[in-house]
Design a protein that fits this description.
heteropentamer; A alpha/beta (about 375); B mainly alpha (about 290); C mainly alpha (about 350); D alpha/beta (about 260); E alpha/beta (about 240); B: about 290 residues; mainly alpha; 11 helices; globular; E: about 240 residues; alpha/beta; Rossmann fold; six-stranded mixed β-sheet; two-stranded antiparallel ribbon; 9 helices; 8 strands; about 35% helix; binds adenosine-5'-triphosphate; binds magnesium ion
Chain lengths: ~375, ~290, ~350, ~260, ~240
Amino acid sequence: TDSPDTNSGPITIGLSAPLSGPAAALGENERNGVQLAIDQINQDGGLLGSRKLTLAAQDNACNPTDGVGSVTKLITQQQVSAVIGALCSGVTLAAMPLAKRYQVPLVVATSTSPDITTAAGKGGNDFTFRINPSDATLAVALSSYLHKAGDVRKVAILAEDSTYGRTGAAALQKALNDKGITVTGVDFVAQGTSDFSTQISKYRNNGTQSVALYISGADHLSFLRQAASARLQLPVTGRVELEGQNLEILKDEQFAGSSSVYPYSSLIKTPANAKFAKAYESAHKTPPTYESFEGYSAVMVLADAISRAKSSDPKAIQKALVKTDFTSLTGGTVKFDAYHQAHDKAFILQIKNGKTVIVSDVVT
Amino acid sequence: MDATYTWELLANGVVLGSSYALLAAGLAVIFGVLNVVNFAHGALYMLGAFAAYFFIPLTGYWIGILLTAATMAILGIVLQEGLLRRLPPDGAFSRSMLLTLGLAMIIQNGAIVLWGAGPRQLPEDSRPQGHLLLGDVIIPTGRAFIVVVAVATLGALYLLLNRTQVGRAMRGVSQNPTAALVVGISPERIGRLAMALGVGLAGIAGATLTPVFTVSPQMGITIVFKVFAIVVIGGLGSVPGAVIVAYLVGMLESFAGGYGSAMTQSISVFLFMIAIMLVRPQGLFSTEVRV
Amino acid sequence: MTAALHVHEPEETNDVMSRKSSSPLHKWLGGRHLGPLLPTAAAIALVPAVVTNDYFIDVANLALTFMVLGTAFNLLYGYVGMLSFAQVAFVGIGGYASSWLVTHTDLWQPVAFLAGGGVAALVAAVVGAVTVRLSEGAFAIITLSFTLLCAVVAAEWTGVTGGRQGIFGLPAPSLSLGPVDLVADTPRSYYYLLAGFTVLALWAMQRLVRSSAGTVMIAIRDNEPLAKAQGYATNNYKLAVFSFCAFVTGLTGALHVFRLTTIDPSIFDFYLMQVMLIIVILGGAGTFWPVAYSAVLFAVLPEMLRMADEARLIVYGALLVLGLLFLPQGVGGFLRARAMNRQLRDMRGGRS
Amino acid sequence: MPADRHLSVSAFSAGYLSGVPIVNDLTYGFASGSLTTIVGPNGAGKSSLLKGIYGLTRWCKGSIRIGDRDITALPAWGRLQAGISLVPQGRCNFPHMTVQENLQLGVYTLPRSNRAVAVAEALDQFPALAAQRTRAAGNLSGGQQQLLEIAMAMMVHPRVLLIDEPSLGLSPKARCQIFDKLKEITDHGVSVVMVEQNVIEGLAASDIAVVMVDGRIHRHGPAEEVLNDPEMKNVFLGGRPDTAAPGREPDRRRHDDDGI
Amino acid sequence: MGVAALSDVEFTLSTGTVLGLIGPNGSGKSTALDCVTGFVRPDSGQILLDGESIFGKAPHLIARAGLVRTFQTVKLYDQLTLDEHMSLSLRGLYKAGRSGASRRRSAERKRATSWLVEFGLEQLRSAPAGILSYGQKKLLALAAVLVTQPRIALLDEPLAGVNPRIIDLIRDAILQANTEGQTFLIIEHNVEFITSCCSEVVVLDAGKKLAAGPPSVIWDDPAVYEAFLGRKGDGHAG
Ligand SMILES: Nc1ncnc2c1ncn2[C@@H]1O[C@H](COP(=O)(O)OP(=O)(O)OP(=O)(O)O)[C@@H](O)[C@H]1O
Ligand SMILES: Nc1ncnc2c1ncn2[C@@H]1O[C@H](COP(=O)(O)OP(=O)(O)OP(=O)(O)O)[C@@H](O)[C@H]1O
Ligand SMILES: [Mg+2]
Ligand SMILES: [Mg+2]
């Protein structure tokens, strides 16, 4: 395939994300973050001497069939310099061979499957890079925290039936067991489940002391709403976004002691993050979510690589990416290891007196 | 796990069943009268939820529900007049499947464009407050209202279908459109009524859930299949059958999920459906007539 | 009262009363029905010559896949009248079986693909044995539940299916013949593989519907009790067609997932089922070639609509609705009805 | 004979495909208050004529009048309200509903207050149905369903009753009763247009005969005259041409002699 | 439903006869036929063909054994042409024919065509059956059975809706086939036809056998007269 004109004209960044189907909300968040980053870079004068960035976003509906079509189109037709994607792990795994075949970097920002890292870098796929942390490290951090905090000894896990939910739940279950915390049960609910009354009743009646959540989007909020109105007196933990609409619910007394491990929080006090969070809120009326943050970061990491490569040629960008040493919004460092996995910071968050506070941060 | 738990699961099953029943009754009416498999039912349910999301803060719970039902009923009439009526009568079944599939795509993705894909919830002060205590079982008021609305609506629907001439006509049109013409029924009128009822019921189902769940454009995607199955198991076109099966499924899900895991919950529903269909292929509550 | 005016394509008539004799080979290949197959095969062969961009080749790959999937579903739904929601399950079963075989054994890929089809056919035979005798609705619901169950099993049976993330990094099909190494590792080389398979599958399926068994299939759809009264073992026919279609579908599924290089439980989503429904109904259920061609349209259309971005699926939905309003019997149905009307008009004309 | 019971068609064509008339340019006034029977070969277009008058064919041309009123533009249910009622050929009831419910739907167009009476009347007139009142109509025998459909059409007391082969599937006994009943309602002024293949009995019960061939009226006149016309008998009404094997005639006579 | 449509009915159809099965509406004639051909499973009893039980066998097996039927509510493949009906019937039932009947294609084709011609359907040969008139449908269904020359043809009101002129043809055909060894069971309400065609008549009433015997005897039976024929009316005059 022809490589894009490397000297002039806009530089196109590709994004493959679910913009329809059950995961559409997450894809939308990610795109918002990506778009914001691109806008900011363009406002600051673009890259490589005033070349602007443009976004080519394709819907992958969270299924590999559409996913392969979207990525092939981005690479071979829209001639993007790099691809960000593909949110759903299954699609990312299908997109990775394409990145390798066409030698275009694929920056994975939100997919959680551990196999992505196994296959990248030393694993054989030099063109795949992942900036979001692996669930295993997050789970270990969280369980140490829970163990130390000391008041929760029986945890139930509620996860969505997706790679995110399943790998997250498995990692946490293992980490909790290692710390001697009992897991009273793992429930996998289909994405798009709206009724959680059964689970809520169960937690109320089987001695569960805290619920670890690995569910996303509308389902997540829906669970919290129902738990609140059913007067479920339990702290939640796991991967809970302690912000926005969630926080409105969680600050109530009944959820006292809720905690979460998250690679991002809008509360993080770095200047870069403050700027990002403010810009995002003014554009979308809500604080940025994890997906928006990762999308934003992906663009910034790519922009950094493009500047260092002094070229928008995908192969050159790949070479530059390998050598990335970039300070992220959250104050961590994005540096790819042999498996092209970055190790940014993650945070243990807690609700205290109705406010989210950062308890500690960990390097993942 | 004690008696309270069992009662709690029972209560959950009734609430869940009530939602399914509202949806299934609507689908059964539309299928029964128009021979239309309404794949847009989930999308319409979502629209109902959004309508209630906008109405309830303005008008309060009960009027909001009524307004939603009315709006959705009117939408049903519009859909009937604008789309479904134009399908030629023979082979309506498969065509309707596709037509409503297209409609579902338009509504669902239209909603994403219009309102974004993220979840929304009713503001705290427009939700029904508090909860009921039955013994030790806590039932949030919003959930109790679902049961109240479902029982009232379905009761009225039963009376309409079985005690009135119009209801009989609705069943008649589906069983033999020519015979309906011969006895002087206007199929256009009955078709409009069926769509108004069916879509209205979907709207009510969505509306009653608005205060309890969150509202998002994706909320109706997967529910269609379950409800479709419920309707077939109840006996195609049999509204009471659909309602009874809806409650059975609600109960089953609640207990299977309560005593097993969420996976047992979904698996048990599929197995239940398969088992019933093997034993009674014509559905639980349909009269068989000779070949 | 108003009996349906459309019958199947007139050239499908396969009555014992009017068959011209021709050479045995020609006859076995399908005789005069080879007609549309040859130009179609030629068109398929021409695509790589005129299309240069890999993306378009990939869309063509998808079109071929849809062609076979749609036609197989058409055989079931359009010809025999069985609304099987299990087709997508067979795509998945074929995909999983072949993926597992290739990643866990040393089985040669083509054999693994065939085995994928075989496993799908076997499962279909078991499911069909208890379901084909049931009513249309019961059949639809059981096959639907079966598909949903498959999705759960695929997600839960981690040891075999790889669980939620499935089996990925599937190797490209390859064939070494002495000095020649054929590897289907680019969209273009994969296209040749798929094209060969598609032509073969279309030939086999059209051979079936144009044979006397094809007429029996329509007869079963139209009036099963009568077919029974005429001595046809309708359940056996249904079971055979169900299993045959499962085989073709499973094989297609295997090829499909090796093209994607990955399979996960999302293969059981409604997505492919929806595609099949659209192709068959708008193509004209019960007509062979219009359905096959509409598969091309509905592989290309969503990709073309990628330009519409946000509104992609809205426009797609609107096109479905409009298509249905203006061509309610699908393209094939429309052509068929027109031909039939002309014929009837001639008949009447001759009378008075 | 009140004028509003006079059904007439003029330049009337009807069919299923555009450009292919099955009923071909027919002009005829059906005598009011009498029993007109249409006979003709299979596929002559008799049923299409009745369906066309009731508005069930795919297209039609020309005009249909009841008395002075042109009803061509009305939909089927509008024509029912205008006083025409139809019993189509073959099965035409609500198979999953009980006989009682079928009858209740039969009076769909009557004012609410008259309905119960009409249903009771029908059950009274058709004891065979009364016995099956709670059965699903689809489970009745063929003849019972035929009776049910006739009952449903008669309940609304139409001005013009179009009835397509009422004798279909009825036992001789039931057949006689139906013909009697039809005669009886013509005595009350109803115009009945009947299609019959049971030609001899049908015409014997009728006032006027219309012979239809190929979508046109071949001949019409007093029923008795047509029935006894040898040409009609040979060509359209069956029975043996005189040259036929002699064995047949005695058969019929024997059955006559047997007092049936 | 707890109501028996038939109870304790027994009759024998001997090879080479034309048996008429008559009775008032709802007396159980069609049900009896459904039982014999396997479409309804009787609660109890025996159905023997050549001394072998066919009780509970699948309909298609019974058809292949030589019992070929028509339905009272006519059943056709709406979308298939008349020609296809005939060939489907021939192909499906080739085992059902009498031994010795011609299995030659050309002969079959001729026979099929001649039936369509006889019934005035030849112009519609390549039209779909769904567009036929009621009587034409009945005739096509009948032709599709007769053309296979089955051992035993079971006809459920084959003449209802058929023009009298064609009734005469059918009578001749049945009698002709009968002399060639075919057996018939005919449910009919046409008294004249039963009289002139059947050698034996069985009368059912309310699910029970009321009478049996040759037509001339049957018509004299006052019980039959009461249940089936009703009063003597002008309608019956030849
Ligand atoms: N599946 C069924 N359920 C309930 N009742 C039935 C069923 N099948 C038949 N019957 C009843 O059995 C009786 C006999 O019906 P059948 O059709 O055999 O009568 P028939 O003698 O053929 O009458 P006809 O001459 O009117 O066709 C009828 O009263 C009918 O209502
Ligand atoms: N739905 C239809 N579409 C096309 N042609 C039709 C349709 N229905 C009937 N016809 C044709 O119209 C002609 C007349 O049919 P019609 O039913 O009016 O005949 P008929 O005189 O009532 O015959 P019968 O005595 O057999 O009932 C037939 O040749 C038939 O093929
Ligand atoms: Mg007729
Ligand atoms: Mg009968």
